[in-house]
Structures are given as structure tokens and as C-alpha cells.
Amino acid sequence: MCDINKTKFFYFLMCLAGFLVILMPVGTANLIFGYMLGDSPCTSCWGQRESMIYIGVAALFIVRYGMKGKFLAFLLIATAFGLWQSFNHISGHAHRDLDQGFGLPIFGFHTYFWAEVVFWAVVLLLGVIFAFAPKFGSFEKEMEGASFRKLTKFNLAAMVIVAFIVASNVFQAFVSTGPIPYSGQGDPVRFSLNPKYIIWDDSGWSKSWKSISFLGKRDVKEPDFAFAPASEKLGIQFDNNIGNAPFANIDDNLKIASEIKINFPKAINTLDYINGEYVASSKWEVFFLDDNFSTKTDFLLDPYFSATINPIVGIIPYLDNKYILMGSNKSFLRFAQNPNANEVLQYADFVRGANNFEGQGKDLGRGRIDTVRAKFHHVLSTTTDGKYMYLATVPNNKDTKTFVISKISLADRVLSAEFTPKAELKEGKTLGDLYVTSMAFKDGKIYALSKKHNVIAVIDLDKEAVVKTISYPENITNARSLFFKDGKAHILSYQDGSNILYTLD
């Protein structure tokens, strides 16, 4: 095939591709789904449909005005943007259960899935078309110095049909979304030409510009740790005034019986007493301490192996002589002490201490807790009743109202229940006003320690209710851990650069 014929064939393929991109997905969605089946695109669907139109029109511009870099660049940019749009749309629905979704299904998949297929098909078709491309000099030669190419009957027919489909989409868009400032709807009603059923809505603007972030609703700042205070970036004031607690009544008041400053070089974020020894953590380090708080053995976790684990927020006993450490992102590691651990095998989990600890082996390893109501919240505490482990959310820069207790089976580490405890609260207050940094299980109840307002909420798991409220002294200013030992409550606070362990009556 000579270069001129190759050039003409290239333009034929380019015209066919641009025509099909608009005819098949855009035309079908508009003419069949829209007018015949009453389907009305949401805001994201309209955006993806526009990107498909831009791609098709750019291809036809190449057919009409010749192979120029600016048209090819626009086509590639529109394709990349469309891929981002469709990925963004799918990601909001990908986690849903079987057959759940949004809009019309086609061969079992909803329309937003097919948009992703279309944009990847454009990438594939471009590759195929350029595989048949002639030498670049042939494009200039084929133009014969003209400013535009002579159209074939097929080219002309394709452009006329494309123009009709684009015009029809403009009409449908106007009817279903209205003129500026109306911007369409996230959950549009069925398409109708009856004015009674046409809804024009401009509320999307305020939602769009309220908070601009690359992460969107996932732009949740890291929680407050002992080693990394976060009051300012969270927009949360951690006062120790018990009178500001959300509870209508405080039932009991703890008093300090004794206090001890722990000589420890790091800010302790969690402390518990498990199997006759103290277990402390600071960021990604875990320390097993004797009764004098001297380190017996320790490890430094590799947080980025397999399931990424954010800073450690709690360690609980698990099976026989094993433990579960929990990260603030609800990813965890089941681990065990073993002075004869295979260092090479355990290298994956531990930067330091692989010869004394195991994270690989039977009943060990990493995992993630999938929650429902707590999905966009961090946790700073965990406890266990031996059958389940419990997590409590903390408020953040996006949501200062929600408080959720998640209940996870230790048998399979899968969510079993979630609830917000019932409680007697002051008017206008929620349990999101707490900032629970630690939980302890005792006598069938969870004791949730809030560093904010210096209160402990006692939660009855059967009633799913706060059945008692306890205050602790306001000079404990940064409570990080609560545990029971020898029948007494102990609170660890990292304040004024020191780790202080309080025993309370």
C-alpha cells in the first residue's frame, strides 16, 4: 500500500473511531436510554458523556483539517480526563454488595462501568490506528497545501449524524438540568418532557466549592497522637473541663491515689497490662516492660509491608500468648513473642526485633477491618472481651458529630455489628463531642476514656447504651490509655514532655 493510500486509510479509521465513540455510547445513552427508557444522567454521567463527545469531535477535526498535533493532544487529554472521571464514578460504587449500583444496568454492569470501558477502548483504538499510520510526511503531501481536507461521503455522513447526536444531547441536558446556574443532580429523576416532572437544581455548586481537596471526603487529617498533637489541623479544642462534657450527668468522680513518672525516652501512645507485663507502644514501636518499666524486649514494625498500618492505637491479647496491634486506619497485625523466631521469615513485618517476634505463621499476619458507619473515621482505641474486639471512632476535621463503636469477631476479623450508644446528653450535644483515646473491658462493659472533657463513658454492650459516666481529675491533661490492674483504674497521660501513670480510686 502506497503512502497516500495509507494516509487515506488512516483518516478512514480515525473517522470511524470518532463516529463510533459518539454513536454507540453517547447516541445510545441519549436516544434509547434517555428518550425511550427515561434514563437521566447524573452530574458525573454528563461529565463523562461530554468527554466522549470531545474525543469524537477531536477525531473528526483531524479528519477535516488533517493530522495536527493540537488535535491529537486535545484528544489524548480528553481521554485521560474521561478515564479519571469514570474511575472516580466507579470508585464510589465499587464497594457495594451484589447487584447494588446506580442507574441502568447493561449486561449486568451499570452505565458508569461502561464509560470506563469506552475510554480504555479509545486508548486501544488509537494504538491500532497509529499502527497503520503512514510516514508523517505523507499527511502534508495528502493535504496538497490545502487548509482542510476534502470529505468523503462517509466522512460527511458521520459528521452529520454526530452533529445530530450532539444537538440531541444538548437538548436533553437543557431539559433535565436547566440553564446556568442550575448544574444537574447527583440523583436525577426519570427523564421527562412533562414540565411537572422536570427538576432544576443548583445546590451542587455549594457542595462543590465548600471544600476543594484532591482527596475529597477522604481528606481526613491524622488523629491526635501522644507523639503528634493534632488539635489545630483537626480544628478540635481539647479542653479538660468536665463541665463541658456532653453528658447530662456525671455519676462518679475518680481521684488520684498515686502517680509515677515513667522514665521512658519516647511519648507512649498506648499502655496496657497484659499477661503479667506492661505493653507499650509509640508510633510503630512496641515495648514489653517489666514492673519497673524497663524494656524487656521490643520491635519496630514495618508499617508499609502488605496491609499498611498507621500508628499503633492499641494492643489486645489474642488466643494463647498472641496479640493484636491495631493501627488508627483499622489495619492490624496479629503477632507473637518468640525468642527463637526465624529472623529471615519475620523480616517482612519487623524493621527491628524480627528475631524475637513473629508476624508470619499460623494465626498470625496482617489484615484490615472493613466498617460501614466508621469508614471515614480513624480510631484511637481498641479492647476485647475475648470473643470480639471493639473499636471507637474519634471526630475529625470533616465530622465532629459521629461516634461509632465497631464490633469485630476475633474468629474471622470481620465486622459483626456497629452502634452509637444511647446516652443522656445535654441539649445539642452528641457523643462525637468526646475524643476516646483508650478503651478497657471490665465486667461486661466497655470503659471509654475521653481525653477531651476528662470523662469515662461506661458502655453496656447488651443495651448498647452509656449506663454510667465517670470523671477524672482535670490535671490529667492528655490521657492516652486506661487499663485495670489489681482492681484499680490506671490512666497514662503524656503531658509536659513526660509519661505519667496515674492510679485512681
From TrEMBL:
It comes from the Bacteria. GO terms for molecular function: protein-disulfide reductase activity. GO terms for biological process: protein folding. Keywords: Membrane, Transmembrane, Transmembrane helix. It is found in: Membrane. InterPro entries: DiS_bond_form_DsbB/BdbC, DsbB-like_sf, WD40/YVTN_repeat-like_dom_sf. GO terms for cellular component: membrane. Its main location: membrane. Pfam families: DsbB (PF02600). It is a multi-pass membrane protein. The keyword DNA repair does not apply. The keyword Transmembrane helix applies. This is Dihydroneopterin aldolase. It comes from Campylobacter ornithocola.
